[in-house]
């Protein structure tokens, strides 16, 4: 073995040596200019490579011609061999194909193609030989990187041969040249050459053989490595299409004959094209997207059996030019190939070429977008099997339901890139399909929101592509408006941060003119009004009846989608319209949502015609979008009014500053304020009701008509009393009445019972009945009964408040928004009973238990009884947010059908089944021995079936009951948050109301504590904790904000403060660090400090101080107390004088001993004393100088000399003492330490220094600070006295000067007289 291997090594060395010798001898004959060309071919500059390739081919052509011309014998000229330089150059070019250095492959491939084309002495067969000799074969010992270079070199070489074959043998120029050679009319050089082909058929056969050989080599390379499949397929498609293009002169009727014959001789190519595209990921991990590319691009070139075997393009019988595209873009076929199109991992991050071909095939041939209309859809390319266009079908099947639903980031990236490509080719109507895709929008928004996301950069590029497409000069105005409308629908605020630098979307919106928006709205209106042209189904065809119905449903849903899309677009760009055009859109939506007419001509205010086949889905969408327009307008007008108030306030304060960027928007804001959409909608409803030719879509009962009539009368009364009403109640109620009129028109059945009480309430509120004069009653008993009845009578404002609370439970976002605005307007008239009603909603904890299935049924029923009465009409879904809620309706219909079918059961059969179940239950209790002897005939078949049905009904009813209870609990929890929003509005608008300290703050704090206790008992119920946190926010940020403004509180408010301190001391029933207790301590501290400040503002600060003193001495000292220093620190922020009065009690906590509890209280009290004496808002006379000296003599002195074993705590205590003494010296004007206090403190300092162990350096420094503070206080006092004397002297001198000036003035006046 060793000898053999040694011999083999020697042979290899000998062979390589001989090759090197031959190369050396050949290189010595090659001119230097040619050698330099090889270096230039490897350049990274494309222009340099092309120049070198052209120069090399020219030089080789000259070398070969010189060799041929030097031969004198004609026979030798016909059998001339290649020159050595040409032979060397061709071999070196093929070897360079396998080099990965710089641009060697590209340069050498170009040069190889050019040399093969221009040198007549080199045939394509010679090219195969050079390629085989230049690139070594791949063996088992070949390394991976070497094998990769060889395979890529082979692919480049075969691509060069394919191009050379086309240019040299198949092109028209080559055919012309050969024709001249065969006829003998060529040049002398050509005449001397031997003719290799005598007939065109032999020439064709040779080209077919060479082409099939190239196809086979390309397929072999593709099968070796999957990442080479795309490039191999590209070479194969290029060669086949090139062969087809050159057949025009020979076979005009069949230009694909040459390529078809070549493919027919290559079984490998047929197998590749015929691969099943549904087997994605099979075949040794190879992808099938190249199969789709080959079959689609080469369909005309495929042999007959290959067309039958391929699974990309379905069979078709049409002979039109677009038959292949129509068949491929069929909806079902796109769904089949979508998985194969998604499998392109080796193309990432590029887009596979097949996508560019498909996107271009989706382009519409119509120019109607540029001209402003879509004429009958004649040039629109429709996808077979649906009413979608090719682009819409491709997007829906492959992207929306394919790429964007996959978990792979790579596929989502591809989806974003394809979106940008399709958007460029999409028409205005097709743009809607792209932007109304929920999966795409969700992926785009989520990735744009977070910069750390993997696809953030890609999604941002997608947004920029949208802006570029809309701003492009070739983009039609119609399409640009469609893009703007789509962005408005999605929500521009989600993307504005990503485009802040370029501000592409902002510029796009600013550039949208009203004329463009109006023209686009008119086209969208026509789309909505377009009548259905569905083909009627043949009723006699029973076999295909189901298929026909399914097809009709698809067409109907497609038409409804287009209508819904047009409605979405029209409502999205209403803000870009003028007020008059906006009013037209409003009337259009309102009429077609709520009314219809039998006449052809609609009311004057409504444009267009009647929708004859308007489905319920479209009417619900019209109603939803109408309410959305009203809500947007109300909020916009509210913001404008608030900005004007702020500007007027700034003008009064001298801070008026107008930005230049906002000046352009002033006109738009004024127009927005003038356009009152709610008033226009209400007026339109009343006009349509009065029109006899107009009928309601939902038939109105007499009760509903009466309710709407009463609402209209109440509205007239409010408008009549609006000017004379100084309180503004009528002005606040008018928007509510208008909203109820519009909502009642949308759904009379739902809102009739809701709005019946509001007209009477408004009438009593604005026109209170006169009180009758009372006379003395004969019976005392009767008088007492009447007094009780009068107590139970409600004030009109209380009734209105109850109605507003009930409106909050409704699913309409418009009604809730207007309700909150109405409550804010009438908040000044709200009584204490109204406030208590709102608080009762918040405090009711029974409805807060969401989904607690383990509780007893009786407990659930008791807890939910109140909420069921209060929320019996509330719906889970929000009609203003969801366009289509048909799913819930369908479910309810199914349940009704089941109930109807169950209702038809025989009562006797039910009783028999129940009796059988009872017998079976009794038999289970018997012994096992007796069970064998039991009668098996007790259950009949009918009873068994009836029992199964009853059991199923029982389980279904139980499940429905649980679902209903869960829904009620969720709705009740949301209702609490809405009630809290009313309290927040009340606190903002009425900060000086006495209801805040007397009712709202105490009860809200108690509700927060109860919610936390419920959360502690059931930690799975997060709704309780969320409610408590929301209450804390209302208390700390709004309710307890302006204590100094509250006046006229009741006398027993000190009891409220005592109760709140007790609540704070008890805590939330959990540890301080638990989730239930977090935040409650601060909320309780803020509430107590607020009440104390209110008492101080009303002249009862001493009572508040006494209460806090009691809290310090009786609660703070106890170990079980939950009061801490932050609780008292909140009082220092609001009312420092109240806590300053308790300084002596705080100082006493410093002298409780040396236990751990005593040390903790010492640090807490020292911290609070430092904050008290450091507070600048504190009255310097509180506490008095005597009290301060008393504290220093005893309590503070004992704190200085306290025996603390821990050195760190010892130093901290000394630092805190030093801070307190320094604060006393700085902020106690005219204060002087007494001799006793100074002596006590100095003795305490000495005692602390002498304590064992020896104090640390930090402790010594703190003690030195205390001593220095005593000296500084004395110096400050003496300097203060000196300054006082100087001020008095200067004031006396100033008085003397003033007297002298007055005397001089009097003398001057006397002289003048």
From TrEMBL:
Signal peptide: none
Domain of life per record: Eukaryota
InterPro entries per record: DNA_pol_V/MYBBP1A
Spans annotated as Disordered: 1-26, 176-202, 532-555, 637-674, 770-795, 844-909, 1266-1313
Keywords: Nucleus
UniProt main location, coarse: nucleus
Bias (Low complexity) ranges: 16-26, 182-191, 639-653
Pfam families linked to this entry: DNA_pol_phi (PF04931)
Subcellular location: Nucleus
Protein's name in the database: DNA polymerase V
């Amino acid at each position: 073995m060793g000898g053999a291997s040694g011999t083999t090594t020697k042979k290899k060395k000998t062979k390589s040596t001989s090759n090197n010798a031959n190369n050396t001898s050949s290189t010595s004959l090659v001119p230097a200019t040619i050698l330099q060309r090889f270096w230039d071919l490897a350049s990274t500059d494309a222009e340099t490579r092309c120049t070198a390739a052209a120069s090399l081919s020219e030089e080789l052509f000259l070398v070969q011609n010189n060799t041929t011309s030097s031969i004198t014998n004609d026979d030798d000229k016909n059998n001339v061999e290649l020159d050595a330089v040409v032979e060397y150059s061709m071999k070196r070019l093929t070897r360079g194909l396998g080099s990965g250095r710089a641009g060697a492959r590209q340069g050498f491939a170009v040069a190889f193609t050019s040399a093969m084309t221009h040198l007549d002495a080199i045939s394509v067969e010679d090219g195969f030989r050079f390629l085989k000799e230049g690139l070594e074969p791949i063996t088992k010992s070949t390394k991976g990187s070497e094998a990769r270079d060889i395979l890529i070199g082979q692919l480049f070489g075969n691509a060069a041969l394919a191009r050379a074959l086309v240019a040299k043998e198949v092109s028209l120029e080559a055919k012309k040249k050969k024709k001249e050679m065969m006829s003998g009319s060529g040049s002398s050089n050509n005449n001397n050459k031997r003719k290799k082909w005598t007939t065109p058929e032999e020439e064709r056969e040779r080209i077919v053989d060479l082409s099939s050989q190239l196809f086979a080599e390309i397929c072999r390379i593709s099968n070796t490595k999957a990442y080479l499949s795309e490039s191999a397929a590209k070479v194969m498609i290029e060669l086949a299409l090139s062969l087809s293009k050159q057949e025009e002169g020979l076979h005009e009727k069949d230009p694909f004959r040459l390529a078809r014959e070549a493919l027919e001789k290559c079984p490998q190519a047929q197998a590749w094209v015929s691969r099943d595209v549904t087997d994605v990921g099979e075949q040794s991990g190879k992808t099938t997207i190249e199969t789709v590319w080959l079959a689609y691009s080469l369909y005309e070139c495929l042999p007959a059996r290959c067309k039958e075997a391929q699974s990309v393009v379905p069979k078709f019988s049409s002979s039109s030019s677009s038959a292949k595209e129509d068949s491929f873009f069929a909806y079902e076929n796109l769904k089949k190939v979508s998985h194969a199109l998604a499998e392109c991992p080796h193309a990432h991050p590029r887009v596979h070429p097949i996508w560019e071909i498909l996107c271009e095939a989706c382009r519409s041939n119509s120019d109607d977008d540029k001209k402003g209309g879509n004429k009958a859809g004649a040039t629109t390319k429709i996808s077979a099997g649906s009413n979608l266009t090719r682009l819409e079908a491709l997007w829906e099947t492959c992207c929306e339901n394919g790429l964007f639903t996959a978990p792979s980031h790579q596929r989502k990236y591809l989806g974003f890139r394809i979106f940008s490509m399709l958007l460029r080719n999409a028409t205005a109507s097709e743009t809607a399909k792209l932007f109304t895709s929920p999966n795409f929008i969700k992926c785009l928004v989520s990735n744009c929101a977070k910069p750390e996301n993997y696809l953030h950069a890609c999604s941002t590029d997608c947004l920029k592509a949208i802006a570029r497409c809309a701003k492009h000069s070739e983009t039609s105005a119609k399409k640009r408006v469609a893009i703007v409308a789509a962005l408005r629908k999605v929500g521009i605020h989600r993307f504005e941060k990503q485009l802040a630098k370029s501000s592409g979307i902002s510029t796009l919106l600013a550039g949208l003119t009203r004329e463009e928006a109006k023209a686009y709205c008119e086209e969208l209106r026509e789309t909505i009004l377009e009548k259905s042209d569905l083909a009627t189904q043949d009723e006699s065809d029973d076999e295909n009846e189901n298929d026909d119905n399914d097809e009709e449903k698809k067409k109907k849903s497609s038409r409804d989608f287009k209508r819904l899309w047009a409605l979405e677009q029209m409502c999205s760009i209403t803000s870009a319209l003028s007020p008059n055009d906006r009013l037209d859109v409003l009337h259009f939506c309102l009429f077609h949502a709520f009314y219809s007419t039998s006449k052809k001509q609609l009311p004057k205010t409504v444009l267009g015609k009647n929708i004859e086949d308007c489905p319920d889905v479209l009417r619900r969408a019209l109603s939803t979008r109408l309410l959305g327009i009203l809500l947007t307008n109300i909020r916009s007008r509210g913001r404008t009014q608030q900005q004007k108030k702020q500007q007027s306030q700034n003008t009064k304060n001298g801070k008026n500053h107008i930005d230049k960027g906002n000046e352009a928007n002033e006109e738009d804001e004024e127009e927005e304020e003038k356009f009152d959409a709610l008033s226009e909608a209400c007026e339109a409803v009343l006009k349509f009701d009065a029109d006899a030719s107009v009928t309601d879509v939902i038939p109105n009962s007499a009760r509903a008509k009466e309710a709407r009539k009463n609402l209209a009368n109440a509205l007239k009364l409010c408008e009549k009393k609006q000017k004379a009403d100084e309180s503004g109640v009528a002005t606040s109620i008018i928007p509510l009445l208008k909203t109820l009129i519009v909502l009642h028109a949308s759904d009379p059945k739902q809102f009739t019972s809701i709005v019946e009480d509001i007209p009477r309430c408004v009438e009593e509120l604005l026109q209170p009945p006169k009180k009758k004069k009372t006379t003395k009653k004969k019976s005392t008993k009767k008088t007492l009964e009447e007094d009780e009845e009068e107590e139970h009578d409600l004030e009109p404002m209380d009734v209105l408040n109850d109605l507003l609370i009930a409106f909050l439970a409704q699913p309409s976002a418009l009604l809730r928004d207007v309700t909150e605005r109405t409550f804010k307007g009438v908040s000044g008239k709200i009584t204490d009973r109204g406030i208590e009603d709102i608080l009762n909603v918040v405090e009711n904890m029974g409805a807060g238990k969401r989904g607690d299935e383990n509780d007893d049924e009786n407990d659930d029923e008791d807890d939910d009884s109140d909420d069921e009465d209060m929320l019996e009409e509330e719906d889970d879904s929000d009609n203003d947010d969801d366009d289509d809620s048909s799913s819930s309706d369908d479910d309810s219909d199914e349940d009704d059908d089941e109930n109807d079918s169950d209702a038809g059961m025989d009562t006797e059969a039910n009783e028999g089944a129940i009796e059988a179940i009872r017998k079976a239950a009794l038999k289970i209790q018997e012994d096992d021995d007796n069970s064998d002897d039991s009668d098996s005939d007790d259950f009949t078949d009918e009873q068994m079936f009836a029992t199964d049905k009853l059991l199923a009904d029982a389980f279904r009813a139980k499940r429905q009951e649980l679902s209903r209870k869960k829904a009620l609990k969720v709705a009740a929890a949301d209702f609490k948050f809405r009630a809290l929003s009313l309290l927040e509005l009340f606190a903002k608008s009425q900060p000086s109301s006495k209801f805040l300290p007397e009712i709202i703050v105490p009860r809200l704090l108690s509700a927060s504590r109860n919610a936390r206790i419920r959360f502690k008992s059931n930690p799975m119920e997060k709704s309780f904790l969320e409610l408590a946190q929301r209450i804390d926010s209302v208390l700390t940020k709004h309710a307890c904000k302006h204590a100094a403004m509250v006046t006229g509180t009741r006398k027993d408010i000190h009891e409220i403060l005592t109760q709140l301190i007790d609540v704070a001391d008890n805590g939330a029933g959990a540890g301080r660090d638990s989730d239930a207790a977090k935040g409650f301590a601060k909320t309780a501290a803020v509430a107590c400090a607020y009440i104390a400040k209110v008492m101080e503002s009303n002249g009862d600060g001493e009572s508040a101080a006494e209460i806090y003193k009691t809290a310090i001495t009786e609660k703070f000292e106890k170990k079980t107390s939950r009061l801490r220093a932050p609780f008292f620190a909140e009082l220092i922020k609001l009312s420092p004088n109240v806590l300053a009065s308790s300084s002596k009690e705080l100082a006493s906590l410093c002298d409780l001993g040396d236990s751990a509890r005593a040390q903790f209280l010492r640090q807490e009290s020292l911290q609070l004393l430092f904050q008290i004496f450091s507070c600048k808002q504190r009255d310097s006379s509180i506490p008095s100088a005597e009290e301060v000296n008393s504290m220093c003599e005893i309590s503070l002195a004992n704190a200085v000399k306290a025996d603390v074993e821990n050195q760190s705590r010892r130093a901290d205590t000394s630092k805190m003492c030093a801070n307190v003494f320094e604060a006393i010296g700085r902020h106690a004007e005219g204060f002087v330490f007494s001799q006793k206090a100074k002596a006590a403190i100095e003795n305490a300092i000495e005692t602390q220094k002498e304590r064992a162990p020896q104090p640390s350096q930090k402790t010594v420094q703190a003690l030195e600070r205390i001593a220095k503070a005593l000296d500084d206080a004395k110096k400050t006092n003496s300097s203060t006295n000196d300054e006082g004397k100087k001020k008095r002297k200067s004031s006396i001198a100033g008085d003397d000067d003033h007297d002298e000036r007055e005397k001089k003035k009097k003398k001057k006046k006397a002289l003048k007289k």
